[in-house]
Amino acid sequence: MRDPRPAPAAPASWPNALRRATCSAMLRLLPIPLRPALLGAGAALLATALPQAVDAAPVTSKAAEAAGRSPWSEGAQSRARLIDAGPGPGGHGLLAGVEIRLEPRFITYWRDPGDAGVPPSFSFAGSTNLKTATVRYPAPSKFDEAGAEAFGYRDDVVFPVLVEPADPSKPVGLAVTLDYAACHDICLPAHADLRLALGRGAAPEAAWVGDALSAVPRPGTVGGGGTPAVRGVEPAPDGGFRVTASGAGRGAALFVEAPEGWAYAAGTPVVAGGDAVFPVKRLDRPKGAEVPPAPLVLTLTAPAGSVEVPVTLDGAAPKP
């Protein structure tokens, strides 16, 4: 099945993406891209930028690899490593995890960083006996970062990686080049080169990877079942829309991903019992365009779970 998420813009290279960016009036060491609608609201251009990402070469450790995990790669206010989690879901392929552990109160970003930020970048070039590697993203949280709304994770996150070997009878040498950001008041880029031979035995932390995979939003449809669920989507006169969710009382959040050039923001929901109605405002669109050329992706999170729902806008009403 084709991934319904809108194709992201081609990521700018690190650190070029960091040099060109902006943030709020509070000066930060790392400039972060802001949505165009926020730039017009008076976000100040950042005056300084780090000349290059904070980079730390991983320390070789046979003991760590024997335990099913790579050595830590130290970065700015953070560290990263690979975890072997054994067989994949249903016994298909292998399961690994990329763990980013942050200093207290620091955050790193989801695949959509929100108003400001840089999503993590994963490259598996240099791996051996690897057919495919698919990174999954646990449900994010929302944070206020110097007046901008950021989407991501605080303190610690594990990104599950579904691994398909080219030859299932042989071990996979997984190599991951990881670029990410660690932010709190200041925002710093970090880089890690991680390597681990999979298939030699799961690490003691394998359960963490399983928990992270369980935290990935399940696929859903408008009007579908499950808890929480997106019950309906109705157009609003300002180009936005309203989302009605069930099983999403207090603590629920809505994230809206859109194609390049488009931006939407979900506001504070009106909660009644176990239901919530989210107003969604259109922040930006390409000149002359009326509707996005690809489906939006709504990610609804709640204490009971999370769901990811594609929605197509046709200019009159959103369609499931």
UniProtKB/TrEMBL annotation:
Organism of origin: Lichenibacterium minor
Pfam family, one: DsbD_N
Domain Thiol:disulfide interchange protein DsbD N-terminal: residue ranges: 96-194
Name listed for the protein in its UniProt record: Thiol:disulfide interchange protein DsbD N-terminal domain-containing protein
Domain of life of the organism encoding this protein: Bacteria
